[in-house]
Amino acid sequence: MSLLLRRFVNEANNSRFLLQRFFGTVKPNPIAPSGRRTTTEFDNLIYEAGNSGDFESVRRLLNSRVVHACFNTTATFKFLTNTASYASSLEDLRRILPHTDAGYTRKHAYETLIARLCKLGRIDDALILIGDMVNGRFGLASCTFHPIINALTKKNKIEEAWVVVESMRSHSIPVDVTSYNYFLTSHCYDGDVAETSKVLKKMEEEGCSPDTRTYDALVLGACKSGNVEAAMVILRRMEGEGLPVLYATHAHVIGEMMECGYYALAVEFVMAYAGKDKRLDEENMGSLASKLIKRKRFKEAKLVLKEMCVRGLRMGIALRDFYETKCAKIDD
Known about the structure:
The chain is an all-alpha fold. Among the domains are: 11-139, no CATH class; 261-332. It contains 17 helices and no strands. Helix 9 (177-189) packs parallel to helix 11. It is globular, with a radius of gyration of 26 Å.
């Protein structure tokens, strides 16, 4: 028994050493009581501390949560809002973040705060934090810039987004496929083929291979341009390269087929993919059936709903009600 006990103690000490090595020195948390913590509990404690202006406790909680494997979330800095206290709260955060535990803890805290600032539309302040990370050498990476590029491209501030990309390059940060995907999605959503081609050319020149979201954007672009055939070609190429297809990618195609009045083709498209992924079948067939009913294409809707029933797929309440009360009245 004593041998097992000594082994347990040694393993516990080794685990603590590894935590310290990757996440910094483990420090006691004076606010949260001892015992197992959850991510939500840490978020709530940080919210209370930030709201009350106790930023020293915010710092300690940011350190403690990583040690407890309760990593930061989109709610971690929820106390920071566009109110009168915004400026002072941000300055307090800029003051305490450099004093969080070095390594992952500090880097992730900065990245989480940058994402929060982008959600609030405070892009300039997010860029100031980037400067803080550069000055402190806190481990900039491509993902640090993603929320900023995403926010700018969503607002169609493309030129400003490219300035951020140049800033990445100036700090020797690689422009990865995710960064390019934000530009592609913006251009494809607008159906801007010329700009989409330019981004693809940049990716090719830099040896950046397309991923699932790249193809999703291209399928979206084809659909926005009203070119279902091109969307299908892109989808087949994606599958040929062995990339997983997002549910949203299928939704783009189904939506455009419905807009073009290709009802039979939409049913054929959905049936062709049936049986490979139950969740995808539920999404595709449920969405298609709803769209068909909305357009009063009841015969096609009945066909899809019967297929869902045969396959034991989950239906929403409205679809289930339609199937049970009205399908029997529809002539085959």
